[in-house]
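Batch queue: ligand-bound targets. Current item pairs a single chain with zinc ion. No template structures supplied; prediction is de novo from sequence plus SMILES. Inputs echoed for audit trail.
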Amino acid sequence: MTSCTVCGLPPMASYEISLHGEATCVTHQVLDRCALCVRPRHADERNWARFTSTTVRCPTCVSVAVDTQQQARKHIPRVRADMVALGIELPQRVRVTLVDPDVMNPDTRSLCLGRTLQRVWVDTAVTDVLGIEIAGGLTETHFCATVVHEIGHAWLAQRGAVNLDQTLEEGVCELFAGAWLKRQRTPFADTLRRSALENPDPVYGGGYRLVREAVVRHGIAVVLDHVCARGVLP
Ligand SMILES: [Zn+2]
Ligand SMILES: [Zn+2]
Ligand SMILES: [Zn+2]
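Prediction returned. Tokens below.
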């Protein structure tokens, strides 16, 4: 049995489980939560780190964090290779840059972990992908899954699938991230994938469930060809 993250004892009858599988008795007073794994923080815990100016990361997430461009570079070749194995290869390679999560999250209602910068040429309607930005300080698994999600946006743009319905676009990208997480075969990756599938957000969670249903019915190749050629699900 694991021990409680706050008191170090076997957890009480009622306890919470973080996305890493760590237990915390529900009886401890909660100051705030880890932005990445939802672990509760007790007021006495000092070894937590900042994520954005209004959010924090627990020691477990910090121990596997991608905080620098150099750390990011270590993971990107494996992510690209995994994507190719899943049949997703970018016609033009796109640069991945770590950015301050505060720059990406000027408003704090929902947390944005990555974004793909695109430029649309009005006269030709051609979309260029300028680059991918990922929030610094994510766990390795969050980082890689977010890169995969953003490569999904770049791939759709480079395949000419622009002006998609937002639910469909985010759903395809979440499907790619989910497929990558599934390949990792780690409990944390499985938990992240499950939480993405259960995400109540109608665009991200709803889109993922919609696209996944179509893939179960028609297969991934048919779904992606249909989305790229006609801009809708088969
Ligand atoms: Zn406890
Ligand atoms: Zn955490
Ligand atoms: Zn997205």
